[in-house]
TrEMBL record:
Protein name, as recorded: Helicase HerA central domain-containing protein
Organism, scientific name: Haladaptatus litoreus
Region feature (Disordered): 328-356
InterPro entries (UniProt xref): HerA-like, HerA_central, P-loop_NTPase
Record field: catalytic activity: ATP + H2O = ADP + phosphate + H(+); Couples ATP hydrolysis with the unwinding of duplex DNA by translocating in the 3'-5' direction
Gene Ontology MF term list: 3'-5' DNA helicase activity; 5'-3' DNA helicase activity
Superkingdom as given in the UniProt entry: Archaea
Gene3D superfamilies reported in the protein's UniProt record: P-loop containing nucleotide triphosphate hydrolases
C-alpha cells in the first residue's frame, strides 16, 4: 500500500518520493508526500549524500502536481538542467525591483546600522524611492553632512555593482506563471546578492498569497539554506516558516548544516528528510528540536549510502527509512571526478543510467 507522508486529510495531491527501505536494504512499498496543503520541509545531510538530488526529485514531483508552483532558489546552478523540461523556466541572473526590499533590509544588506547617519540616510532613501537610481538621487540631494552622503553613495554603488536591481525585476506573479515551475539561477551571484533576490521573491510570494492575487500555491525550494537563513533573506524565510500555512506558502529548505539554522526552522518543519549526518552538532540540532521522534531513532537508522534517508513525518508522528527514487531530469549537482575528466566522461547519474 502506498503511504502519503505529511497528509492531514484523506485525499489530495501528492508526489512520489521513493520506497520504504527495509533493514536488509530491500525496497518496500512506495512512499509519497503530500502537496495538497502547505508544508515546511527540511532536507539535511552531509555533503555528497543526496540533498540536492532529493530536492530535484521534489521539484520534478511538484512540477507534475496541479495547483502548486515550485520556485527554486538555486545558489549553485544545480537545477539549470530543468531548463530543458517543457513548462519550466530557468532565469539566469534574476533581477528584482529595489522596492521589493523593505527599507530595513537595505541597511542589513549593506551592513549599515539604521540608527547611525549613513544607515538612516539609506533607510530614508529606500522609503522615498522605488528604484536604485531614485535612491541614489535622494542621497545626492539630501541635506546631510557630505561625508554621510558620500558613504551612503558608496554603499549604494556596491549594490549597483551586483546588477540585480531593476524596475522591471521579477514579480511573484511571474514566478508562479510557468506551467511547471521556475528556477532562479543565482550561481553567478555573491552571497549578499543572492540573499537580496531570495528576500525579495519570498516576501512577494507571501504578499500575493495574503492578497489572494495568485491562485497557485507557491513552494519556495531553497538549496544551501544555511546561507540564506544566515543572511538578509532570513526574515522572509522565517515568515514563511512561522506564518506561511494560512496563505498557503510552502518552503523546502536543504542544508548540510542543520546546526546553523535557526531553531524555529527545524522545530517548525513538518517533514524532515535526513540523509547521512555524521557531525554530532547537526544530529543534536535535529534531536533537540524534535525530541519525541529523533531520540535514538535517527542514530539507530542512520542512512549509509547516497539516496538513503530517514523521513520524519509530523502528521503521522512517525519515522521511516526511505530510499529516494531516481531522478528523471538530469541532476546538475554531482561533483566531477578526476578519473572521469581524464576519460572524457561525465559522472552525471542520468548519463550513467543511460549507459547502464
Ligand atoms: N536517490 C538517489 N539515487 C541515485 N543516486 C543518488 C541519489 N541521491 C544521490 N545520489 C548520488 O549521490 C551524488 C551526490 O548527491 P548530491 O549532489 O545531491 O549531494 P549533496 O548532498 O547535495 O551534496 P552537496 O552538499 O555537495 O550539494 C549524486 O550525484 C548522485 O550520483
Amino acid at each position: 500500500m502506498t503511504e502519503v507522508l505529511g497528509r492531514t486529510r484523506d485525499e489530495g495531491i501528492s508526489g512520489h518520493l521513493g520506497h520504504y527501505r527495509a533493514r536488509d536494504g530491500s525496497a518496500g512499498a512506495p512512499v509519497r508526500i503530500d502537496f495538497d496543503g502547505p508544508h515546511v520541509s527540511l532536507v539535511v545531510g552531509k555533503r555528497g549524500y543526496g540533498k540536492s538530488y532529493t530536492l530535484g526529485v521534489l521539484v520534478e514531483e511538484l512540477a507534475d502536481a496541479k495547483g502548486v508552483a515550485p520556485v527554486v532558489a538555486d545558489p549553485m546552478g544545480a537545477f539549470t538542467t530543468f531548463g530543458g523540461v517543457s513548462g519550466f523556466e530557468v532565469v539566469s541572473e534574476p533581477r528584482v525591483s529595489a522596492d521589493a526590499l523593505p527599507p530595513r533590509a537595505w541597511c542589513d544588506l549593506l551592513g549599515l546600522d539604521h540608527e547611525r547617519p549613513t544607515g538612516s540616510l539609506v533607510w530614508r532613501a529606500a522609503t522615498e524611492s522605488n528604484t536604485l537610481a531614485g535612491m541614489n538621487d535622494f542621497v545626492s540631494n539630501a541635506e546631510a553632512n557630505s561625508a554621510t552622503c558620500r558613504a551612503a553613495r558608496n554603499h549604494l554603488a556596491l549594490a549597483e555593482s551586483w546588477d540585480i536591481f531593476s524596475p522591471d525585476g521579477l514579480t511573484a506573479e511571474q514566478c508562479v506563471e510557468p506551467e511547471s515551475g521556475i528556477v532562479l539561477d543565482c550561481s553567478g551571484y555573491d552571497e549578499s546578492a543572492m540573499n537580496a533576490v531570495v528576500r525579495a521573491v519570498a516576501e512577494d510570494l507571501y504578499r500575493v498569497r495574503i492578497a489572494e492575487s495568485v491562485r497557485k500555491l507557491p513552494w519556495l525550494v531553497v538549496d544551501e539554506a544555511h546561507a540564506f537563513f544566515g543572511g538578509v533573506a532570513a526574515p522572509a524565510l522565517r515568515t514563511i516558516v512561522t506564518r506561511g500555512r494560512r496563505p498557503g506558502v510552502s518552503l523546502v529548505a536543504a542544508t548540510q548544516r542543520p546546526a546553523v539554522l535557526p531553531e524555529v526552522a527545524v522545530s517548525q518543519s513538518d517533514l524532515l528528510v535526513a540523509h547521512r549526518l555524521t557531525s554530532r552538532n547537526d544530529r543534536d540540532a535535529l534531536a533537540n528540536a524534535r525530541p519525541a521522534y529523533m531520540q535514538g531513532s535517527f542514530t539507530d537508522r542512520m542512512p549509509e549510502t547516497p539516496g538513503s534517508a530517514v523521513v520524519v513525518d509530523d502528521a503521522t508522528e512517525s519515522v521511516h527509512a526511505v530510499r529516494i527514487r531516481k531522478r528523471r531530469v538530469e541532476h546538475g549537482g554531482g561533483s566531477p571526478s578526476a578519473s572521469n575528466v581524464c576519460s572524457g566522461e561525465t559522472n552525471s547519474p542520468v548519463t550513467e543510467l543511460r549507459k547502464g
